[in-house]
Amino acid sequence: MDTVTIARPGLAELVERVGAVAARRLPARETAFAVADLLRERLPGLDILTEEERLGSPDTYVSRVLHAQDEFSIVAVIWRPGQETVIHDHVSWCAFAVLSGNEHETLYRDEGDRLVEIGRADNRPGEVSGFAPPGDIHKVRNTSAETGVSIHVYGADVGRLGSSVRRVYELPVTGSR
């Protein structure tokens, strides 16, 4: 097992707790929900990042790998106001927690030749959720006036893969039907 970890307040404990869930080898959706429960029980603080890291980048949101190993990765995402992802899905299950800002998420269903918007959610500080493919097509945007920080736990080694994104969608989008 190849492991990459950066020492940070609360990270070692989170790695240990997520590792115990991952070792149970539950189905992906159940793992995502179990890890989300761990995050709810003991949410990391903003001090998991340095003050400088919490500034983010003026150009785009920043993903910072805090821990990566074969079974899972822990990533901090820093979003300045208005920054957003492209429409995408993921290589694995994910659980995430919002530490600051507001992550507005738009969910989509792939209809083959187009995407259909199927829902929206505003994830505020302290809120936690989890999901697993398939059906995880979404776009996320920081709609708050402050820089947002969120912690994402993925069921893959994003240090090795370079990203948690499986596919970017460039299909036309229509409203729900």
Automatic annotation (TrEMBL):
One GO MF term attached to the UniProt entry: dioxygenase activity
Database matches in Gene3D superfamilies: Jelly Rolls
Keyword Oxidoreductase: yes
Tagged with keyword Lyase: no
A UniProt-annotated Pfam family: CDO_I
Keyword annotations of the record: Dioxygenase, Iron, Metal-binding, Oxidoreductase
Family of this protein: Belongs to the cysteine dioxygenase family.
PANTHER family: CYSTEINE DIOXYGENASE, CYSTEINE DIOXYGENASE TYPE 1
Protein name as it appears in the record: Cysteine dioxygenase family protein
Native species: Nonomuraea corallina
